[in-house]
Amino acid sequence: MSSRVISLDLNSDPKTIWRNCLNIIKDNVPAITYNTWFLPIKPIELTNKTLKIQVPNNFFIEWIEEHYNAVINKAVKSILGENGNLIYIILESHEDDGEDAGLTKNGQPVVLQEPKAPKIEETPVHNVSSFMQNNVEEEELIFNSNLKPKYQFENYIKGESNQLARAAAFAVSENPGETSFNPLFIYGGVGLGKTHLIQAIGNRIITKYPDKNVLYIPSSDFASKFVDAIQLNKGNEFSNFYKRMDVLIIDDIQFLVNREKTQDLFFHIFNTLHQLGKQIILSSDKPPKDLKGLNERLISRFQWGLSADIQPPDFETRMAILKNKAEKFGIQLQHGHIEYIAYNVTSNIRELEGCLIKVLAIASLGSKELDMNSIKKIVKEISTTRQVNVSIDQITKAVCDYLKVDENKVREKNRRKEVVQARQIAMYLSKIITKSSLKTIGLHFGGRDHSTVIHSFDCVTQLLQEDANIKEVVESIKNKIEISST
Ligand code: ADP
Ligand code: MG
Q: Helix %, strand %, coil % for the chain, to 5?
């Protein structure tokens, strides 16, 4: 038994309060989530129903708010009552002084977040039953735009892969309904930034033109709300609501495929809005003409405006995205680590983020030193696009980037020493990494003969045995392009 006198009222002891919160949270999230995101949190202080908790970095706050807001909110409110509040603090030092409260050496929290009560999950106000109560035309429409503030142009990295789409989106946000980009139809594969881009348009418009009615809705929500409305015999009110938008943004329109009734209704809404000069923005996983199962007349309307695609990002864009996000989360990552991820996760920005998040999670916990092996493991775990079939061109690019040699020269008949060396290393790596034939490899290097490829391969093999420097260079290039298949 401790002989210490506890002078605090137990109820106002932050540790006890937090422990009680944790008990609730624990029942509501998987164990791994609990261990990763909640255990590292430290209660610091409790004043007037406001609990100050310390988290390792900004990233934690964002992550928790984005994913566990409802859970943490529920826990805090049920322990502290309805007025319960949370304040996150971040300490400058990531060092952890063990058991104790975890203050920095001088005990000062350096970043004090705005007293953020965990946000209450907002339910869209425009759900069927509530918006139907105002059937008045003149009355101001009160509804939730469904836009997430995190999707902005400012944090949308430009690159060749999204150039046209981004430029068109920006133009639309400047003058909604007044460009010839109506509808604006953005298409591209999963995780390439369609939702981000079309929401950024909406966010910019509501800032620039606060009076405009802007609504974002995924097409599947649109469809299911329509079904609800029909059941309540409120089909008209439903479509009238949408017809009052100045900017209607429908995401993933491909999910309307084979939903005849919803398509019909949307067709009418589309026509009305278009005639009124209102802006329509759509996204899809494929271009309009490939949307089989979608009514021809809709497809033809989608082609009235501008269709712009988003391609998988190139290496530079991937690097920029990773750097930008790491910086935003306030975590320093080694250049080589970022580069490794950018080289190896190529097809999808969501996966790129997934890797980074995992890396950041480990970095935030500070329990483990981040080394190249952990990075490789994470990439391997997350990336579905493992570079088993990394291309000869990618290899050439990696080699040239590393050795700072012009890629074109490697493919020409240039005989400068450094160019020859880069070419030989690229051929060597192409042979060991890709399954391409010697002939194919030769073709990628300006149509060289297969015997030249063999010669290069032999030269590099020899060099690797003799020259430690070359060995190191080749190893690090290889690290960048290849995920060990172990
Ligand atoms: P999609 O809707 O095409 O499936 P998302 O818009 O959901 O893709 O993008 C996936 C993730 O990648 C999001 O978190 C988004 O913020 C991020 N992202 C996509 N493109 C970019 C970009 N160009 N710059 C920064 N982040 C991006
Ligand atoms: Mg999307």
A: 55, 10, 35
Beta partners for residue 249, in sequence order = 216, 281
Residue 433 contacts residue 395 (beta carbons within 8 Å): yes
Q: Is the CB of 432 under 6 A from ligand 1?
A: no
Distance CA 70, CA 391 (A): 45
Half-sphere exposure of residue 280: CA atoms within 13 angstroms, side-chain side = 28
In terms of DSSP bridges, do strands 214-218 and 85-90 run parallel, antiparallel, or are they unpaired?
Answer: unpaired
- Nearest ligand atom owner, CA of 319: 1
The finding on whether 196 has its CB within 6 A of some atom of ligand 1 is yes
Strands 214-218 and 247-251: parallel
Tell me if 348 CB under 6 Å of ligand 1: no
Pull the structure tokens for residue 201.
């348009």
Half-sphere exposure of 405 (CA within 13 A, CB side): 26
Tokens matching residue 49 = 């129903």
Residue ID of nearest Cα to ligand 1 atom 18: 193
Pick left, alpha or beta for residue 231 (phi over 0 → left; psi -120 to 50 → alpha; otherwise beta): alpha
Ligand 1 geometric centre to CA of 69 (Å): 21
For residue 308, the SS3 value is strand
Whose CA is closest to atom 21 on ligand 1?
Answer: 193
- CA dist., res. 225 & res. 132, Å (int): 12
Residue to substitute in 283, 349, 355, 357 for testing ligand 1 pocket (most ligand atoms within 8 angstroms of CB): 349
The pTM of the full predicted model, rounded to 2 decimals, is 0.63
Q: Are 56 and 365 in contact (CB under 8 A)?
A: yes
> How is 62-119 classified by DSSP, letter by letter?
HHHHHHHHHHHHHHHHHHH-TT-EEEEEE-S-----TTS----TT----EE----PPP
At residue 360, what is the residue type? Answer: L
CA distance 2 to 5: 8
Helices then strands, counting H and E runs in the chain, come out as 20, 9
How big is the CA angle at 91 (ends 88 and 97), to the nearest 5 degrees?
115
| Nearest-5° Cα angle at 425, 419 to 426 | 85
pLDDT tens digit string along 445-473? 988 998 999 999 999 999 998 998 998 89
267-321 tens-digit pLDDT: 999 999 999 999 999 999 999 999 999 999 999 999 999 999 999 998 889 999 9
Structure tokens given for 11:
């109820």
The finding on whether 308 has its CB within 6 A of some atom of ligand 1 is: no
Ligand 2 (single-atom ion) residues, CB below 5 Å: 194-195
390, 387, 426, 391: which is closest to 405 by C-alpha? 426
Q: What is the number of the ligand closest to the CA of 254?
A: 2
CA 246 → CA 241, 269, 277, 300, distances in Å? 11, 12, 8, 22
Report the C-alpha gap between 333 and 92 in whole angstroms: 16
